[in-house]
Write a sequence for this structure.
């Protein structure tokens, strides 16, 4: 143990003698790790955040499709679905998307019969009549509704409609409510011009969570044109979306990884004359080849671990303290109205292991292998460079 500690001490002093070269390697190494860590930390935190938010989603959502596209569904379907054994409730939901030309942002308009009734409010209440609305924090900030107490929207008949803001949403995560505007069901139908007797979809509660798939199969059999969507399918969809976006970013950062590999390979094949002379002197004063390899191993490990930990810390700070301002637009999506929320810090040990294996191991190997070739050379020859 003392023998290894002395070698580590000498390795650190050797790196300090070449401090500028060592610093350059640490910086390049850390930047590469920070880029990879930022993508993986952000995508993983968003997946966990989305899964937590979707736990409040309905057990089952029934949509009607026509030619493979989402279509409005007759509200009479809900009456038939309620009679299916195991169904606790079936509620028609009225919602849709609204593009605001004034702010160039997309909003989600939902009726009070949907999930919005389960959410907490920062202040105020849900709309009680067709002239009121409750808005998410992002909408309130963008349209100044918190100060004015009013919101003007243009309906499907190209007429401006004035709503009094009765409340501003808050929840465990604004990922769900940031772009949300809640109206009464009647107001949503009138705003979008819903035909009578039709809804956007039907939200179901199932008494036994193990029977969700069974209930979905029964609904599909009774109404072949419908598409039942379970909560787990929604969570998997978010996982796939974040995995795809993070994979796209990792592909972009492949250029940085390749540059790092070239740098490591150049270091491996271009061991300097000074280092060769140092190895020759060590061999001449009695060091074994194994001692030289241990020395170079610890030199590489000190550089790699320092840069790796520094890169992880930079990535962690970038994502969880500065809201991943560099990557957020790509990973969260391309919508204009981004939710401003605090992600819960998450560290995935598997991701750390993979990043460490793909960066630390190659670098240490590229440090040890060329040193071995010099270490087995005659000391006099090595000292001559």
């Amino acid at each position: 143990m003392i023998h290894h500690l002395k070698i580590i001490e000498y390795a650190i002093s050797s790196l300090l003698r070449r401090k500028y070269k060592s610093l350059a390697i640490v910086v390049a190494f850390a930047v590469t790790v920070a880029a990879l860590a930022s993508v993986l930390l952000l995508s993983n935190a968003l997946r966990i955040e989305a899964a937590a938010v979707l736990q409040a989603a309905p057990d089952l959502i029934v949509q009607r499709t026509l030619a493979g596209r989402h279509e409005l569904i007759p509200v009479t379907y809900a009456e038939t679905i309620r009679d299916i054994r195991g169904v606790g409730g079936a509620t028609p939901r009225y919602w849709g998307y609204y593009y605001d030309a004034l702010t160039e942002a997309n909003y989600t308009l939902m009726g009070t019969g949907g999930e919005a009734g389960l959410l907490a409010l920062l202040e105020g209440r849900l709309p009680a009549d067709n002239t009121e609305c409750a808005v998410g924090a992002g909408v309130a900030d963008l349209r100044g509704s918190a100060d004015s107490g009013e919101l003007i929207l243009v309906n499907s008949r190209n007429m401006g409609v004035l709503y009094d803001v009765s409340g501003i949403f808050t929840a465990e995560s604004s990922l769900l409510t940031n772009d949300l505007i809640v109206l009464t069901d009647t107001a949503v139908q009138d705003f979008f011009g819903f035909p009578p007797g039709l809804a956007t979809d039907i939200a179901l509660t199932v008494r036994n969570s193990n029977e969700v798939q069974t209930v979905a199969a029964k609904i599909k059999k009774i109404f072949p044109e419908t598409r039942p969507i379970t909560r787990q399918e929604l969570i998997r969809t978010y996982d796939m979306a974040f995995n795809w976006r993070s994979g796209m970013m990792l592909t972009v950062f492949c250029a940085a990884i390749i540059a790092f590999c070239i740098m490591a390979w150049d270091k491996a094949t271009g061991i300097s004359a000074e280092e060769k002379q140092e190895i020759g002197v060590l061999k001449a004063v009695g060091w074994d080849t194994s001692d030289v390899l241990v020395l170079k191993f610890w030199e590489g490990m000190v550089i790699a671990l320092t840069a790796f930990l520094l890169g992880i810390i930079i990535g962690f700070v970038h994502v969880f303290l500065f809201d991943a301002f560099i990557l957020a637009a790509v990973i969260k999506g391309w919508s204009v109205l981004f939710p401003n929320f605090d992600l819960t810090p998450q560290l995935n040990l598997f991701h750390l292991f993979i990043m460490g294996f793909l960066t630390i191991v190659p670098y240490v190997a590229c440090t040890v292998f060329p040193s071995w070739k010099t270490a087995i050379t005659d000391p006099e020859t090595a000292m001559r460079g």
Observations:
- The first strand starts at residue 60 and ends at 66.
- The chain has two domains: 2-53+240-383, 59-231.
- The radius of gyration is 30 Å.
- The mean pLDDT is 81.
